[in-house]
Design goal:
Elements lengths: L9 H9 L5 H6 L2 H5 L6 H12 L22 H11 L4 H8 L3 H15 L1
Length: 118
Amino acid sequence: MLIKRFVLRTRTLAALRRAGITTIGQVRSLSDRDLLSVVNVGPKSVADLHRALAGQSLKRQPEDSLSCLALPRPLSDRDEAMVNMHASGAGFPTIARHFGISRSRAEQILERAREGSD
C-alpha cells in the first residue's frame, strides 16, 4: 500500500522561516489569521499547511523543524560532484576553486546536500 505524504512548497517554508516560524509546534500554535499575516503566506499556503500537518503518515513532534515537510530538491550534476569531492577529502577552498565559486557558496551547497540526505 502506497502512503502519500503531502509536502510544502519552498516558497511557503521560506516565508515562515523569514517570520521566525521554524518548528511544527509554532505553526500549530498559530491561528489562520496569524498565518495569513505572514508576508507571502496566503489562503492556499494555509490550506497546504493544514493538509501537511494533518497527514496520517506524518507523526512529528512539536520541536521538529518545518523543513521535514519540504519537497526534497534533487542535486544537480555539479552539486553531486562537489559532494563526491568533499567525501573524498577535499576542503571547501579546493572545491570552491575547482568550481569557480566562493567558499561560502560551496559550504551552502554542501550543507543543502547534507540536509537533503537526512
